[in-house]
């Protein structure tokens, strides 16, 4: 799934966005589920990321985890 454009709308005086059904399906979530908005940098660009977990693992952490699993076999 590529980037999706969303418009910030007014919801009782607060800013709100609608999340397209395709994005919800890709994340495996539905209305009533909890998502976290995480600030991340892609290169020098500041981005907001939707995640099912409160933080996104650092890629280095993923590599170390992978190496540890390989060493256990």
What does this structure look like?
By secondary structure, this protein is α+β, with helices and mostly antiparallel strands. It has one domain: Pemi-like Protein 1, Chain: D. It is built from 2 helices and 4 strands, in the order ββαββα. It has helices at residues 21-27, 59-72; strands at 9-11, 14-16, 36-42, 45-51. The strands form 2 sheets. The protein has a two-stranded antiparallel ribbon. A two-stranded antiparallel ribbon has the order 3-4. The chain is elongated.
Keywords for this structure?
SpoVT-AbrB domain-containing protein, 2 helices, two-stranded antiparallel ribbon, 73 residues, single chain
- Structural shape: elongated
Residue ranges: pLDDT <50 for 5 or more in a row? Answer: none
Sheet of most strands:
2 strands, antiparallel
Q: Separation of termini? A: 34 Å
């Amino acid at each position: 799934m590529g980037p999706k454009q969303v418009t910030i709308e007014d919801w009782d005086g607060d800013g709100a966005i609608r999340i397209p059904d395709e994005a919800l399906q890709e994340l495996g979530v539905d209305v009533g589920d909890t998502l976290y908005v995480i600030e991340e940098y892609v290169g020098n660009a500041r981005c907001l990321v939707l995640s099912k977990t409160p933080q996104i693992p650092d890629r280095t952490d993923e590599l170390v985890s992978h190496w540890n699993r390989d060493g256990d076999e």
